[in-house]
Amino acid sequence: MNTARIYHMLFSSVYPLYIQKAEKKGRSKTEVDTIICWLTGYDQVGLQHQIDQKATFETFFKEAPQIHPNTNKITGVICGYRVEDIEDDLVQKVRYLDKLIDELAKGKAMEKILRT
Known about the structure:
Blueprint: H1 4-8, H2 11-24, H3 29-40, H4 44-52, H5 57-62, E1 77-78, E2 81-82, H6 89-105, H7 110-113
Antiparallel strand pairs: 1-2
């Protein structure tokens, strides 16, 4: 897996794509934000700050208040890789987020997506 690109990719450039993917399937921006905040520990203000600052994924996750302790419950395949087997910490976090947004777009209930 080529991971170098992910480190420099802007979170703010991918964020609208997450929203677009969710809205195409009848889900909302609020649900996307809930997932991101659950995973990272950001509140809405902190999330917006990262977007406004055009943070890279590296910075976005490095400055995250607290990665949720239930991330070990996120399993499955995204982009051809099992998320639980990805060794690079940053890439794994990005793929966790991708997986959660995919689950949202596929109609999964928020309680299941948030592993509650």
